[in-house]
Specification:
The structure holds 2 protein chains of 2 kinds.
Chain A (H helix, E strand, L loop, with lengths): L3 H14 L13 H11 L2 H26 L4 H16 L2 H16 L5 H26 L3 H9 L4 H31 L11 H12 L2 H36 L1
Chain B lengths: L10 E10 L2 E11 L4 E5 L6 H8 L7 E6 L2 E2 L4 H10 E4 L11 H11 L5 H14 L15 H13 L5 E5 L7 H16 L3 E5 L3 H7 L2 E6 L2 E7 H6 L4 H11 L2
Classes of the chains: A mainly alpha, B alpha/beta.
Chain lengths: 247, 251
């Protein structure tokens, strides 16, 4: 955190000293600069919404496969292993391309860039979520399961009232980190043409031909987003720790 | 539907065998517990006594033999297992209270979710049993804010809230500091005197002498001796029982 302003200073000093810098391209002081800035920032909505939706789906799928993974049923456990190994092995960029270009052919449906992006990110990430959830659930002591069983709670009630509420406390910090990762990986969706932050920057570079400044600004955009998210993750971690002590 | 038969003893085990891998933990166990009977099981550690009572509510599965609880035969069927668990209360060595729920919520969860009571009924019942274990004032606290003895009494109340036909105690005082053992044993004695059917695994021989109708001594996975507490303590028939009693009574 403390080094952050220093990095920023170096960044902008670079603009003052080097003759090749041309910040005018996104300068809020000029009409065209303002338009360009607005254009770059207009990708923010897609970056955030793709990431959040992908995260939600990824958590849902991940939880399902985590539960299969800790099941006493061998076939269920096997399906968890297969799923995790398979989706963990596919590079995210490849997944984005395949979901957008391949899946519509296989299923005979059309998927727009937005939902293709959400789906690809969610599938890729869900393998990791499954492992996070599995670890979290397995970290809850055996005695909790036995106590829930001994009063006759059903499997669903046991998960809902006893195991998951305790597991979530331990899982939230890694989930937050996973969301940071998701925000960054959402830039990959630019390759199929979704107008999120990275795509916007690419498009502006093509018309303005100032890659150095525009990509530097893109770096800053992600940096700010992630610093904000990290701040909330850290606050959450602190609160969880405080709760744990209280209980 | 789960068939129920009132003619049977509360708990019946016939020729029960269980293995952990190659190792046989239970050997030909026969056990019959009648209504309102208080059975105390003792024996050296590793003798299979905890495993035995954990088979009664299916925290462990047995591989051979018959287990019947309150007239319901234990099968693989989840419906049967749930019906049995509803009838059987269990108190654990490590209390196993739900740390993220208040004491009251620990007690009302079972009645509300399993017995389908509404919140008010469940709370009334919970308070009744908290008073029985003498800690109604702790209802809104979290388990970690209580002493070990208080936590174990909450755990007993949590089981009682299900109004079980039989209560299992798995070394309920072994994790407690010495000064807290008495408060838990007092509650257990009261419970025994109120007519509850109980099966206790414990090393508390004072408690056993006072409440047990039947004593069981286990060693190496088998029931070595079984009889009235009078006979058991004054004239144990088996050499191993004598040795064990000597060890724990004269220390």
């Amino acid at each position: 955190m403390t080094r952050f302003p220093l990095i920023l200073t170096i960044f902008f000093l670079g603009g003052c000293t080097g003759s090749e810098w041309g910040w005018y391209v996104i300068s809020p002081g000029t009409q065209s600069g303002r338009i360009n800035l607005g254009f770059l920032l207009s990708g923010l909505g897609y970056t955030i919404s793709v990431s959040i939706l992908a995260m939600i789906f990824s958590i849902a799928i991940g939880l399902l496969f985590a539960l299969l993974g800790i099941s006493s049923n061998r076939a269920a456990r096997w399906s968890n292993r297969a799923y995790v190994e398979f989706f963990r092995a596919i590079p995210m960029l490849v997944m984005v391309l395949w979901v957008y270009y391949g899946l519509p052919v296989v299923l005979g449906i059309s998927i727009d860039t937005f939902w293709a992006g959400v789906l690809a990110l969610a599938l890729s990430d869900s393998a990791f979520e499954a492992e996070i959830f599995r670890g979290g659930i397995q970290s809850i002591s055996r005695g909790q399961v036995e106590a829930a069983d001994s009063i006759g709670l059903s499997y669903i009630d046991k998960m809902r009232y006893i195991i998951l509420p305790q597991a979530i406390r331990r899982i939230l910090p890694p989930l937050g980190n996973q969301f940071v990762y998701m925000l960054k990986m959402s830039s990959l969706v630019s390759v199929i043409g979704l107008a999120e932050l990275t795509r916007r920057a690419n498009e502006l570079v093509v018309s303005e031909y100032r890659p150095l400044e525009i990509y530097s600004f893109l770096v800053l955009e992600y940096l700010v987003l992630i610093v904000i998210v990290s701040y909330f993750v850290r606050r959450m971690e602190k609160k969880m720790r405080a709760d744990e002590h209280q209980h | 539907m789960v068939e129920k038969n009132d003619e049977n003893p509360v708990v019946l085990l016939e020729k029960v065998n269980k293995w952990f891998g190659e190792f046989q933990v239970l050997k030909n166990i026969d056990l019959r517990v009648e209504k309102q009977q208080r059975v105390v099981i003792c024996g050296p550690s590793g003798s299979g006594k905890s495993t035995l009572i954990r088979c009664i509510n299916r925290l462990e599965s047995h591989q051979q033999g018959l287990i019947m609880v309150d007239g319901i035969k234990m099968t693989e069927d989840m419906q049967n297992i749930t019906a049995i668990r509803r009838d059987v209360g269990m108190v654990f060595q490590q209390f196993n209270l739900f740390p993220h729920l208040t004491v009251l919520r620990n007690l009302t969860l079972g009645p509300m979710r399993v017995l389908k009571m509404n919140a008010r009924q469940a709370e009334t019942r919970a308070m009744k049993y908290l008073e029985k274990v003498r800690i109604p004032e702790q209802a809104d606290k979290f388990p970690n804010q209580l002493s070990g003895g208080q936590q174990q009494r909450v755990a007993i109340a949590r089981s009682l809230c299900m109004e079980p036909t039989v209560m299992l105690f798995d070394e309920p005082t072994s994790a407690l500091d010495p000064e807290m053992i008495a408060e838990v044993l007092d509650v257990m004695v009261e419970l025994a005197e109120s007519g509850m059917t109980m099966i206790c695994v414990t090393h508390e021989m004072g408690f056993a002498r006072r409440v047990a109708d039947k004593m069981i001594f286990m060693d190496h996975g088998e029931i070595v001796e079984s009889g009235s507490s009078e006979d058991f303590f004054t004239s144990p028939a088996n050499e191993r029982t004598r040795q064990f009693l000597n060890q724990i009574l004269h220390h």
